[in-house]
Model the fold of this input.
Amino acid sequence: MTKAEGESPDSRIENPLLQQTGLPAFDRIEPKHVEPAMRSLLADLDGELTALEADLGSTWERTVAPLEAMGDRLARCWGAVGHLMGVRNDDALREAFEAVQPEVVTFALRQGQSRPIHDALRELIEGEEREKFSPAQVRILTTMLRDASDAGVGLEDEDRERFNAIAQELAQLATDFSNRVLDATEAGAVWLRDPAEMAGTPESLRELAAQAARDDTEPGATAAEGPWKIHLDRTCVMPLLQHAERREVREKVYRAYVGRAGSGEFDNRETIERILSLRHEQAQLLGYGSYAELSLDSKMAPDVESVSSLLEELRVASYGEAEGELETLAGFAANSGAQEAGDLALWDVAFWAERLREEKFAYSEEDLRSYFPLPRVLEGLFGLAERLFEVRIEAADGEAPVWHEDVRFFRVSDASGEPLAAFYLDPYARPGHKRGGAWMDECVSRSRRLALQAAEVRLPVAYLVCNQAPPVAELPSLMRFDDVQTLFHEFGHGLQHMLTRVDESLASGIRNIEWDAVELPSQFMENWCYQRETIHAISAHVETHEPLPDDVFEKLKAARTYRAGSDMLRQIYFASTDMELHKEAPATSGEDAFAIQGRVAERTTVMPPLPEDRFLCSFGHIFAGGYAAGYYSYKWAEVLAADAFGAFEEAGLDNPEEVARLGRRFSETVLALGGSCAPAEVFESFRGRAPSPEALLRQSGLVSTS
Done:
């Protein structure tokens, strides 16, 4: 590689992406910095890799440590670019990202397929030096060798060349897939102009949709008179489906939502088939029977059969319940005199489910939002972290450059005030520029070796990203209860990254943890949303400042298992579809991806999807994220999370001493150990036994609690 054309001698100093100390300079990073920064960095790393291969030693410091440092520099620069692609996406950034992505993939493949490095790592783990390594170091070496094998280190000549071509194409296809979903979400927005079309919808949605219209082409749009622009993201779609009284409006929005990126200019259908074909070919080159086998090689679940067994156990437990829930819903609609009662459609379910919830539990999701302003939720969440894990979280806005004015920055310390970590919080949806969903990612990993001073430890920094409704008028962001649980979920991921005690960066925090175990702390944290002390701490009515009343809290708890069978079955549908798509060669039975989806739906849905349903075309988790042949991980880890929370329930959630004791143990095991040992060992070190699915089924109301 050569220095980027036009790069001045001082450009490396001036380019904020090449800043290797402190936090990323998000206030200065622009698309124009991406290509020169990455090409300069990759040229340096390429030279360092060549030098390392020529002078490998038989010690950790001469083999693994240089690889760790090189990977850290690449992750810092390319990670910042990838982060901005998710939260501040635009055409210029896309162009720059796609220009250098092939070079990044080429370097990663070259390092992963280095025979000298692979042989040196094997010598380390098999030689006399092994006795000097910690368990974490042995696990790191084992993982590095496995990853090298799955990166094609054992391939020769034509097979390696083909493997690398596939890797390049898959990287580009994933980027294309994600960009099309983002574009389709914006371009496919549904415009509503008649106030009658918005009948029944909450004021918050009307104001949000009017603001979207004002930002587009209608500067005079108002919440009362419209027009309204309904973006095809859940922030807009779900409130409309739950509350819009006009059935034809619900149908229009529902069809647009499930058809996103499935036709026209932003069509992902061919991309899906190509991705599946290439993944299968890649797995076969490595000697696996399917991509599912390749995926599970690095996961906690031992094989495809084990995953299928868990999914089937949960399907059997939830299917009959889901059928009964649908029958109840149809009966409720009929008794309400609705014209659709005898022909309940997919776009009717959320509306009538919300009406039934309101009657059954005497509260509505929209009413709850007034009790959950974001500042109060954060205050209560941080208080819970202090109570459980003996940490303090304080706002540090202005101490770190941010990529958008709405982004917050916080610092985490222990009970004595000793700094432990920090994190960014980007809470609000920005359709068209920020991808949907919610996620946590690492900005900086914990490391002793990579610290600036030898006697110090470099502290971790996390990104927490959500997509809730932004503040409207003079009101703060009012959160749906689902948004609250999402925030708790992502914060749980963040805690595992931030409270790690592992000083080896290759196994600290969320690193080196099997994918189907990494959701344990996130789903564990969601459970606290249903604990009385927590709900009082995170709720304060936006006008009266009173916490959520106890009687409403009891209804909220009772409603936790409302339609639990349907919710469980929906996740089984997604997970089973994912596994079926990846467990054999595409089109082996003459089926395309959508035929496979339909076949799975026959066993895992009680209302079959529309023939034109294209939800796979926006299923970024498996086609543009890390969940391919791994979406089951949510349920696998939910078993662990429910069982872990069960320890607190058994000890007594109203017993502060026991809660604090178990919180410390959870922090010292699940949060502290990270990827330094196998997740089964981590779980047993906390729980004292292997996990059981009984807690999850009981929590979901699918088995008796007696």
Observations:
- The first helix runs from residue 11 to 14.
